[in-house]
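Two quick folds needed for the group meeting slides. Do the first one here.
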Amino acid sequence: MKGIITVLGRDRVGIIAEVCVYLSRRRINILDISQTIVQGYFNMLMIVDMGSCAAPFEETAAELNALGRETGLEIKLQHEEIFQTMHRI
């Protein structure tokens, strides 16, 4: 199963590392990653493979959301299909 993770917030050192450490501990593989910084704001989009993650999707999404609150970021995890449906032209 694939997921889409979005990370938004003020840029600072260590954002990518914090998210990647969490993903590694959950055995979530990063398939693709794109990040930009615009006028001091960090924006990252990741496509991840959740096939080896033992935790339920909803639990993982809640934990990423909590990580975002703890670190001053907005972190969201969505099913790939839902993300694609929401962003169709």
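Then this one, please, same format:
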Amino acid sequence: MKKGLIHVYTGAGKGKTTAAMGLALRAAGCGYQVKIFQFCKGRPSGELNMLQKLDRIELHRDECGSTKFSWDMNAEEKAEWIDAQQMLFDDACEAACDPDCDLVILDEALGAVHAGALQLSQLLYLMSHKYKGTELVITGRDAPEQLIQAADYVTEMRAVRHPYEQGIDARRGIEF
């Protein structure tokens, strides 16, 4: 790619990760090298099974391995989790500055910001210092205005109706 642009997929609706994974498949299908970094996600999900089979896609999660939500962690667990999110972010920065990496996805990085594991300033710094040819995608709810202004693409997923409102839990293969 000649010029890598910056995408933000945000909003309260379903589809942020799905859109990012779709872009990863499209890019890999065109011969691009893709690296995905998933923050705040320790539980298994359907896309992992397929993405790990593809040669041009590398998937990275934190080494902490916690399946708890950050708000359910005790102080020790949360400190370990925050350290793991920071290490994952450092790896993502390295990938985004690598001229051989065409697409870098920071899935649920905004969740890590809202949970106190990353700082908005870190994302903004990465956005302005990534390799010029690397496409960068950041996903998560409630994107701050500074992030929105710094991005080239901003897509907001808006929930109009969701089965959760009728008491239907997240379903394997559809929501995860």
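Slide caption for protein two: The chain has a mean pLDDT of 92.
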